[in-house]
Amino acid sequence: MPNLYLENQLCFSLYSATHALLRSYKPDLDKLNLTYPQYLVLVALWQFKQLSIKEIAEKLLLEPATITPVVKRLEAKKLTTRTRQKDDERVVIVTLTEEGKNLRSKLSEVQKRVACDTGLSDVAFQTLNSTLSELTKNVSAKLAD
């Protein structure tokens, strides 16, 4: 059945592309002693300045229990700080330190290099990114039903 050939599996294409992109990021992230999930948390914080653990989890489409250890490791590296919200101490707010803010330009260059590694034009890159965002939204909505 052709629908079961690897080359016809969208999930395999996405898996393979993700694996290739993560391999492209890895050498630069290793030099900075960062994991890819830590990088994503930093990206979210550069964009939104400060976020709760729950908000980071929502933006990264992960569970808060997955984000907490990532944020703790970033704090140990002195890239973020965690504080409890004054009116609700159950809420943990994550903020970048100066050192965390200063990584932004370095990691921006890494992201640009990885984007170049894709070999896609700017238009193709943006189109693919939009298509994948739509796919994620649609599949997530179906799973929530």
Automatic annotation (TrEMBL):
This is MarR family winged helix-turn-helix transcriptional regulator. It is found in: Cytoplasm. Gene3D superfamilies: Winged helix-like DNA-binding domain superfamily/Winged helix DNA-binding domain. Residues 7-137 form the HTH marR-type domain. Keywords: Cytoplasm, DNA-binding, Transcription, Transcription regulation. The keyword Transcription applies.
